[in-house]
Write a structure and sequence with these properties.
The complex is a heterodimer of chains A (228) and B (345). Chain A is α+β, with helices and mostly antiparallel strands and 228 residues long. Chain A contains five helices and eleven strands; from the N terminus they run αβββαβββαββββαβα. Chain A has helices at 2-23, 62-68, 95-101, 160-166, 198-227, and strands at 34-42, 48-56, 60-61, 73-77, 83-88, 91-92, 112-118, 126-128, 137-138, 143-149, 178-182. In chain A, strands 8-7-10-1-2-11 form a six-stranded mixed beta sheet, sandwiched between helices. In chain A, strands 4-5-6 form a three-stranded antiparallel beta sheet, with helices on both faces. Chain B has a two-stranded antiparallel ribbon with strand order 1-2. The longest helix of chain B is centred in the middle third of the chain and has 30 residues, at 142-171. With 345 residues, chain B is mainly α. Chain B starts with 9 loop residues before the first helix and ends with a helix. The chains are: A alpha+beta (228), B mainly alpha (345).
Chain lengths: 228, 345
């Protein structure tokens, strides 16, 4: 009797939690309490993305800065070790490979996503963050960078205000994140892989249907033989 | 299994299992996963008819349960993706953050891969003649194989014993209502299992199983090193193949074959002291040739496509949901994994 009541209470609590989770409105940022941080992302082809990210509260971590910037990002959770960044803007690797080697190939000079913090007083100085983005605290006015590299980050020497303007955030007081990608000469923007055309998809579906049909036919024959 | 069917040579089944296991190990593209699963289920449906197949159905149900757990785990722990279903408070450790359709699909594909591999294992369990498989092993590995086959045979016996204990306890008026009532079932199960294990051990020892070898039949140190290196190279090659490093995998497989051959054949002279006699040689006829030939061809096609078009196997619904790549020759090749269902000895 008591266990039935406990089970009912647990089920009811989970249902209420699920409803609250799905129905609650998305939180909005109040303008008067906003802080801002800059983000610079440089990929292997030299494309540089500038982002200006608003946040409430005194600080956020590096992963939240990246996720809130609007740049397509894929991360994996390593529990107490924090999150690993697998892919930024389409460069990197998939989740399965990321869990194995954080997208670094076997060669000693193979590039991978490295995380840097810009010196407030000297924008030309970028310091490698050994502990990664989960362990870094991003405060108002700070700038962090990501570079697909094995050594020199090649991140630009520009101030936080310039980053805000390059990202399209104007004076940098907005409540929405801004981002913009600058392409070096001769480099195209990242394009997503073309999906298969309709004809190929239909033929693939037909092949699967044929396999399923043959499986069912052979199964039916075997059942008929077993019954006789 | 129909009594009119003779068991096929286990080597044919093992090669088929390797070909069928490759797509779920190499990636999560739903097209080859679906083709493999449909073909394997077809073989299971034909070969797993009757009581033999019924013993393995609990394993398939368990695989489905683990698949569901995989979906939930991925949905709650992976917060990447562009299609948001809901949100948990970010202050909650690990599960806090957005819940995305991308993560749900990734979990589903993972569950599909697990189910495919379990179906291949269950099909092997139903169709493989374990006594024939043991006879194929080198003589020096025979004790290991006997121990493995005895342990493997305990799985269905344990399932049967569990059912009998439950019926006996219920006949005494015992009604299990939850985990706290598991002790009257678990204890007899453990006691019975230990008793069976002791009886089996005594029977094996009476037949000189595990008796120490004479010094002249003992393996030489270089053979042990060669075999160890061969096994390590083989495992590393399989890992490289799963990562898509085909050339490294090929080189390591070659090295593994050389090391294992050296270690096994080098002991041939001393192994002759342990030579076993066979009452009946394994049968290798047209059905075995057909299944092996088709499985090897499917395997080559898969490896060739892995080298030329890795996206045929790989698919990630991150960071945005996009249609997976389709490789039509691969799907056609995987359809031929149905061959064992169509071939009768």
């Amino acid at each position: 009797m008591i266990w039935d009541a406990v089970r009912f209470w647990l089920l009811l609590s989970m249902a209420v939690l699920l409803a609250a989770m799905l129905l609650r409105p998305a939180p909005t940022l109040a303008d008067e309490n906003l802080h801002h941080a800059g983000l610079v992302v440089r990929d292997g082809e030299g494309r540089i993305t500038y982002a200006w990210v608003p946040f409430s509260g005194d600080e956020i971590d590096g992963v939240q800065l990246l996720e809130r910037s609007g740049i397509p990002t894929v991360t994996v959770d390593f529990g107490a070790l924090g999150k690993g960044v697998c892919s930024i803007g389409g460069q990197g690797c998939g989740v399965s490979e990321c869990r194995l080697n954080v997208c670094q190939a076997s060669a000693a000079d193979a590039p991978y996503w490295q995380y840097f913090q810009q010196d407030r007083d000297d924008p030309a100085t970028w310091t490698w963050q050994v502990l990664g983005p989960s362990a870094s605290d991003v405060e108002d006015g700070e700038v962090f960078g990501w570079s697909w590299t094995s050594e020199d980050p090649a991140l630009p020497d520009i101030s936080a205000n310039q980053i805000a303007r390059l990202a399209g955030a104007g004076e940098g007081n907005g409540s929405e994140p801004s981002l913009r990608t600058l392409l070096p000469e001769g480099v195209m923007s990242v394009t997503a892989a073309r999906p298969p055309d309709t004809r190929t998809t239909v033929v693939a579906g037909f092949i699967l249907a044929v396999i399923a049909g043959f499986s069912a036919l052979l199964f039916g024959q075997r059942r008929a033989e077993a019954a006789t | 299994m129909d009594v009119r069917d003779r068991p096929l040579d286990p080597r044919a089944w093992l090669i088929w299992a390797i070909a069928a296991s490759l797509p779920p190990l190499l990636g999560r593209n739903p097209w080859p996963l679906a083709a493999t699963l449909l073909a394997v289920l077809g073989v299971w449906g034909v070969r797993g008819v009757g009581a033999v197949g019924a013993r393995w159905r609990p394993l398939l149900r368990l695989a489905i349960v683990f698949g569901v757990i995989s979906v939930l785990f991925n949905l709650l722990t992976s917060h990447s993706g562009d299609i948001v279903l809901g949100e948990l408070p970010s202050t909650w450790p690990i599960v806090g953050g957005t819940l995305t359709l991308n993560a749900l699909i990734y979990g589903l594909l993972g569950g599909l891969a697990i189910l495919s591999l379990v179906c291949v294992s269950a099909t092997l369990g139903v169709t493989l003649d374990w006594s024939l498989a043991i006879r194929l092993l080198p003589e020096r590995m025979a004790p290991l194989a006997v121990a493995g086959s005895v342990a493997w045979s305990y799985l269905p016996r344990t399932t049967t014993a569990l059912a009998e204990i439950r019926e006996a306890q219920m006949a005494r008026g015992f009604r299990p209502r939850g985990l706290r009532d598991a002790a009257p079932i678990i204890m007899p199960l453990l006691a019975g299992g230990l008793e069976r294990a002791l009886m089996t051990a005594e029977a094996l020892e009476a037949r000189a199983f595990g008796a120490p070898l004479s010094p002249s039949a003992a393996p030489r140190p270089w053979q042990v090193v060669s075999l160890t290196c061969g096994l390590v190279a083989g495992l590393t090659a399989a890992f490289c193949l799963a990562l898509g490093l085909v050339f490294a995998a090929g080189a390591l497989f070659g090295l593994a074959a050389l090391a294992l051959a050296g270690g096994l054949l080098g002991g041939h002279r001393s192994g002759s002291i342990l030579r076993r006699t066979r009452y009946r040689e394994p049968i290798w006829e047209r059905p075995e040739w057909i299944i092996t030939g088709v499985s090897v061809a499917v395997l080559f096609v898969q490896i060739a496509i892995l080298m030329l078009d890795p996206s045929a196997y790989r698919y990630e619904p991150y960071p945005s949901l996009a249609a997976p790549a389709i490789n039509l020759p691969l799907l056609v090749a995987l359809g031929f994994l149905l061959t064992p269902a169509a071939v009768r000895p």
